[in-house]
UniProtKB/TrEMBL annotation:
It comes from Isachenkonia alkalipeptolytica. Residues 7-17 have a biased composition (Basic and acidic residues). It is found in: Cell membrane; Cytoplasm. This is Signal recognition particle receptor FtsY. The gene is ftsY. The keyword Oxidoreductase does not apply. It catalyses: GTP + H2O = GDP + phosphate + H(+). GO terms for molecular function: GTP binding; GTPase activity; signal recognition particle binding. Coiled coil: none annotated. InterPro entries: AAA+_ATPase, P-loop_NTPase, Signal_recog_particl_SRP54_hlx, SR_rcpt_FtsY, SRP/SRP_N, SRP54_GTPase_dom, SRP54_N_sf. GTP binds at residues 156-163, 238-242, 302-305. Keywords: Cell membrane, Cytoplasm, GTP-binding, Hydrolase, Membrane, Nucleotide-binding, Receptor.
Length: 350
């Protein structure tokens, strides 16, 4: 019955999957230099400032989890089964998922018993510990960029913020002194190529592209050759995301990754899956489909600032056994942050 909390109608799912990406690019007529997001990451942004932005971005999730836990424990005078059941409901509605929630609650019971905890007010601290441990099980925030070039393949359905994430990752890497090249491998979505070119112009990064509707594998092949010849540090490739046509998507991505496997043998590679945090448990189903095509090495969770159900961060990494590499907590360039479990949970519970 609890699983019905996450069930969506086929019609709703088709509507979500067929939406074209409506991602943030500079408005028409607005120069890249004048864009609100053009602030360079790290420029005037301290570590404390980044933590503050993370806290601000997690405000809705905090209200959905920690604030509710605060109110709940205050209403109890002892730790009993009613407390555990109410906490279970809080975690499920925050999109931790049924399986992850049940596991966390079982661990909490054990921790309470082991520590001989009797004060309900101490439950929040124990929950914080367990959530951190759950995330650290598969934590690996660093991108594998050891070779020249290194290749980052970015996949995800239309509408999740894939191209915007690519632009922000590229800007971040260039700010770290790396030579970056972009490949416009999503040749099917209207405007995708132009959108990536705008991001490239904003950061002074070249984009390898073909005409709209051309073979994505050919684009990626040309980009790999260009990256090698130009001594590029990192090549980031966009890909198609037409999940509503699963068979064609699988075929298209299969061809692209076959080229990458052949041409990038011995090179450092990442396959990042971009997921929209606001879609909740539906994001896990998307991830499973993409895992049929390639070994996903990391997750990018966008739009966390737009949902009270940020528990998806915990459930998606735990269920898929894939680390969250980056999270998006706002529209500014520095709002796409490297994911550190302790920092994330600290911001959530602070």
């Amino acid at each position: 019955m609890l699983k019905n909390l996450f069930k969506k109608s086929e019609e709703q799912t088709r509507e979500e999957e067929s939406k074209e990406e409506q991602e943030s690019t500079p408005e028409e007529g607005q120069s890249p230099a004048s864009s609100q997001e053009e602030e360079t990451p790290g420029e005037g942004v301290t570590l404390g400032g980044l933590f503050g932005r993370l806290k601000e971005g997690l405000t809705k999730t905090k209200k959905g989890i920690t604030d509710r836990v605060d109110d709940m424990v205050k209403s109890y005078t002892k730790i009993d089964e009613d407390l555990f059941e109410e906490l279970e409901e809080i975690l499920i509605t925050a999109d931790l998922g049924v399986n992850t929630t049940m596991e966390i609650i079982d661990q909490l019971r054990d921790r309470v018993r082991e520590n001989k905890t009797t004060d309900p007010m101490e439950v929040k601290g124990l929950l914080k510990e367990l959530l951190t441990e759950a995330l650290e099980e598969v934590a690996d925030p660093n991108l594998n960029l050891e070779t020249t070039p290194s290749v980052i393949m970015v996949v995800g359905v239309n509408g999740v913020g894939k191209t915007t994430s690519i632009g922000k990752i590229a800007h971040k890497l260039k700010g770290e002194g790396k030579k970056v090249l972009l490949a416009a491998g999503d040749t099917f979505r209207a405007g995708a190529i132009d959108q990536l070119k705008i991001w490239g112009e904003r950061s002074g990064i070249d984009v390898i592209s073909h005409q709209e509707g051309s073979d994505p594998a050919a684009v990626v092949y040309d980009a790999i050759q260009a990256a090698k010849s130009r001594k590029v540090d990192v090549l980031i490739c966009d890909t198609a995301g037409r999940l509503h046509n699963k068979k064609n998507l699988m075929n298209e991505l299969g061809k692209v990754f076959k080229i990458v496997n052949r041409e990038c043998d011995g090179l450092s590679r990442e396959s990042l899956l971009v997921l929209d945090a606001t879609t909740g448990q539906n994001a896990i189903q998307q991830a499973k489909i993409f895992k049929e095509v390639t070994n996903i090495s990391g997750l990018v969770l966008t739009k966390l600032d737009g949902t009270a159900k940020g528990g998806i961060v915990i459930s998606v990494s735990k269920e898929l056994k894939v680390p969250v590499k980056l999270i998006g907590v706002g529209e500014k360039l520095e709002d796409l942050q490297s994911f550190e479990p302790k920092t994330f949970v600290e911001a959530l519970f602070d």
